[in-house]
Design goal:
- Helices cover 46% and strands 15% of the residues.
- The protein is built from 13 helices and 13 strands.
- By secondary structure, it is of the alpha/beta class.
Length: 375
């Protein structure tokens, strides 16, 4: 029996893979704990999960407000804000709590999300092996490679904070995707394990009796997408009103066409087997969950890693990409009709699904983590 400590930021999409891998480790008899924001973690983890507070409610509220400011930015200001006002300050803020977790829990391995920079810093200081949980594959292909000055600036920030680039471990990087989506050559430490979906806890209810026959689509833009998100959702409602589908739209209540089921949140993973396609902003979790079920996608990326993820979907032939800020109802309707009616999109999504299944998911990730302990 070994001890594994997961260090995560207060972001659902970054917690979910660790919940699955941690659940697999628990099922094997290991001891597992998480360090992060308890209010974010507890709804996503088993009832008896051990959680150490590395972020309190006040800091989480500040982070949420910062992310809302981030949504209003454009161009290089987005990247500058992300690093200087979010990622590096979050790293500094989490160090004391992660240090306490390491002292109290005494893990054999620290598994740090790539945006939880405190994890590697504390692990190195304690002489512990650390592993990266890559909750998005975008940074693996280094999207800043075409902007060497910006790339050097990011590396300088990391050097000032951690003495080096700690985004990825040189021992093991768990990537919740497959080479069917992520092109390139990678070192031996990079392990494509596919989406980690088992052992997940979804506590959100769903009116299953309101699902109708025929084709169904999910329309979801994640959280914190601001006024631009409201515009896109309005256009999406108009788009599906003229299609022979039932749309499940994740949004606050508002007037909607008869074929739109509007809900503030859904048990997304449980809903996937009941769908025929997904419209999304390109969040890595949503995209990979859809493809794990062989569902084609309409992807309208907004920022951050989403354009890279959208490009992966298009390259795989598993979906259609739209321009988020300019997409109108007719564009969304046409794209959705394409992925629903043209069989090559579903066929390509099926090939990605097969590659995900072969990668092994949470069980494969747990196997690799056990090997880290064994040396």
């Amino acid at each position: 029996m070994s001890r594994f400590l997961f260090v995560v930021p207060p972001l659902t999409g970054h917690v979910n893979p660790t919940a699955s891998v941690g659940g697999e480790l628990l099922a094997r008899g290991h001891e597992v704990a998480w360090a992060g924001h308890p209010g974010t973690l507890e709804p996503l983890l088993p009832d008896d999960a051990l959680v150490f507070a590395a972020i309190d409610d006040h800091l989480e509220a500040v982070i949420r407000a910062q992310r809302e400011r981030w949504l209003a930015l454009r161009g290089m200001a987005v990247l500058k804000f992300f690093w200087e006002e979010f990622l590096i300050p979050l790293g500094h803020a989490m160090v004391p709590g992660v240090s306490d977790a390491v002292t109290l829990f005494a893990p054999d391995v620290v598994v740090a999300d790539q945006q939880a920079l405190a994890g590697p810093v504390v692990a190195r200081g304690a002489g512990l092996p650390w592993v990266t949980s890559a909750s998005t594959s975008a940074e693996l292909v280094n999207p800043l490679r075409t902007m060497p000055k910006v790339d050097a600036w990011v590396r300088d920030l990391l050097h000032d904070f951690a003495g080096g680039d700690v985004r990825f471990s040189d021992r093991l990087v768990l990537v919740y995707s497959s080479k069917a989506l992520v092109a390139g050559e990678f070192g031996g430490e990079v392990a494509f394990v596919g989406p980690a979906l088992s052992h997940r806890v979804e506590r959100v209810g769903f009116p299953w009796e309101r699902l109708t026959g025929g084709r169904r689509v999910l329309i979801s833009l994640g959280t914190l997408n601001g006024p631009a998100g409201e515009r896109f959702l309005g256009q999406a409602m108009e788009a599906v009103a003229e299609l022979d589908v039932q749309a499940v739209m994740v949004a606050p209540p508002r007037p909607a066409p008869a074929n739109v089921l509007m809900l503030p949140s859904v048990p997304q993973l449980a809903l996937m087997p009941h769908l025929d396609a997904v419209v999304t902003h390109g969040g890595h979790n949503t995209v990979c969950e859809a493809l794990a079920h062989g569902l084609p996608l309409v992807v309208a990326p907004i920022r951050d890693d989403q354009p890279t993820v959208a490009a992966q979907v298009v390259q795989a032939g598993a979906g259609v990409r739209l321009t988020f800020s300019r997409a109108r109802a007719a564009d969304i309707r046409s794209a959705l009709a394409s992925v629903l009616d043209e069989p090559e999109y579903a066929a390509s999504a099926g090939l990605v699904r097969e590659s995900f299944s072969a990668a092994g998911g949470a069980a494969a990730a747990a196997d690799l983590l056990e090997k880290v302990v064994a040396g």
